[in-house]
Amino acid sequence: MLDKVEHIALAVADLDAAIDHYETIWGLRVSHRERVEDQGVEEAMLPVGESHLQLLGSTGPDTTVGKFLERRGEGLHHIAFQVEDLEGTLTRLKEQGVALIDERPRVGGRGHMVAFVHPKGNHGVLVELIQRPARAAGQH
Ligand code: CO
Questions:
Q1: Alpha-carbon gap, residue 94 to 41, rounded angstroms
Q2: What is the pLDDT of residues 76-115, one digit of tens each?
Q3: Is this structure's pTM higher than 0.85?
Q4: Spatial CB neighbours of 52, under 8 Å, sequence gap ≥ 6
Q5: Is residue 43 annotated as part of the catalytic site, yes or no?
Q6: Is 37 a catalytic residue?
Q7: Cβ–Cβ under 8 Å, residues 16 and 33
């Protein structure tokens, strides 16, 4: 059901400072940076092997990440798993009574289809499910 850990997301108070830290101290490099205005986040992706570290800054105090930082401070925000069939996975989770934040897939960062699973039904961990990008015909 789960293909791989696509990224691990950390909420950070100062995105530029956090990027500088992970590049200087850990030798990572930003491959993608994006501001998603309607979600109130600015995110940076830093590849680690086949996965990524995602640094998540907020665009203001009244956003989801802004409130998270206020309540809990910096730290682990969510884990993102890549799945082959997002719709099917959501249907299965609903049948099993798992609380979902997104009942339907929506467009997330990098244009991927995503859905979030509520931490209360998942031992306190916010999980993001990401649809595996469709491969072009002929590629395997
Ligand atoms: Co994410």
A1: 27
A2: 999 999 999 999 999 999 999 999 999 999 988 888 999 9
A3: yes
A4: 6, 7, 8, 31, 45, 46
A5: yes
A6: no
A7: no
